[in-house]
Amino acid sequence: MIDDSPKDETSEILRAHAEKAEQYDRPATESLGALRKDGVFALRTPRAYGGEWAGAETIGRRLAGLGRACPSTAWIAGACVTAKNLVVGSFPGSRSDEFFADPDALFCGSGVPAGQGVRVAEGVRITGRWPNVSGCEDAAWAVLALAVEGTLSFTVVPVADLTVDRTWHMAGMRGTGSHSLVADDLLVPARRVAAASAFAAQDLLLYSITVLGPVVGAARGALDATAAMFASDRKPFMSTYSRMGESPGARHWLAEAAHLVNRAENTMLTVARAAESAGLSGAASARLHMELADAGRDCRSAVERMLDLHGASGFATGNVLQRYWRDVAVGSRHPHLNPYLAVERFGTALVSPENTD
């Protein structure tokens, strides 16, 4: 099980401000401050710049622990991990110096090549509109994919040089502030633009774990809320039981929900450990992605079972369970956890001549 305590100071701050994040469609200032103080934004900052450069398992554990308190804020921390990893891969060595001057800076980004770049004598002029950039209103740097004269590339731009269009209005993961970033003929120094290289299998798995971690945490948070209900004097309505725990059926469903959350968590950590090993074959990588997608579905199924236990009261706006439900429903449907594409890729890998498994 995730061993990050849900009662540590950072988690308590995130939990206390989770509703505020939803209200304003962006993370609470207090929560961001707590993450920065706790070193969360430095999880994937290289050690040479004062960061942790944590591995996939550590990252998965930290994000799940934070997601237990506020899935949206944990999601932003995961997006920061992905963005910093992209910077390191695209701008090796001293080319990263200016980006990591502050090891605890929040990064955001988009791997969707939604912009165009044209080289000029002064650098590269970029124009584009990147949707769904989590944490963009509060980030210092944005890592953006674009085509530069036909070549897939990445650019790293101060968010202050871009326009934020507040387009994120969703049922779940509201507090991620995943709005759109816009550039209009913005001049970027040539040193901040680099051709994209192929992603390693380990990197692709890491990116999926940064998405799944907050979802697993949200399912664990929902389980916390359900356990609290069982510890209260709540009884199954229209029954002779005096408490929920007296019902064998309720105990069975609680066990089912807990099993699904535990399975999702264990799957994530197992894949994270595999992601830190070199030499993954195409079939092995595809299989691991399929397992992560299944873990996302386990989280959804678990929360649905918990809502069955709560009944209609679980959907009351004052009940935290409905927020976890919405966050899991949205977060688990991120493209990195797409189950039918995961099945498709695994099947293709199994019949590929290059498959050595």
TrEMBL record:
Keyword tags: Oxidoreductase
Example GO biological process: fatty acid beta-oxidation using acyl-CoA dehydrogenase
One protein family per Pfam: Acyl-CoA_dh_2
Residue ranges occupied by any Acyl-CoA dehydrogenase C-terminal domain in the UniProt entry: 213-338
GO molecular function: acyl-CoA dehydrogenase activity; flavin adenine dinucleotide binding; oxidoreductase activity, acting on paired donors, with incorporation or reduction of molecular oxygen, reduced flavin or flavoprotein as one donor, and incorporation of one atom of oxygen
Domain of life (superkingdom): Bacteria
Any one GO cellular component localisation term in the record: cytoplasm
InterPro entries: Acyl-CoA_dehydrogenase, Acyl-CoA_DH_C, Acyl-CoA_Oxase/DH_mid-dom_sf, AcylCo_DH-like_C, AcylCoA_DH/ox_N_sf, AcylCoA_DH/oxidase_NM_dom_sf
PANTHER family in UniProt: FLAVIN-DEPENDENT MONOOXYGENASE, OXYGENASE SUBUNIT HSAA, MEDIUM-CHAIN SPECIFIC ACYL-COA DEHYDROGENASE, MITOCHONDRIAL-RELATED
Protein name: Acyl-CoA dehydrogenase
Organism of derivation: Amycolatopsis sacchari
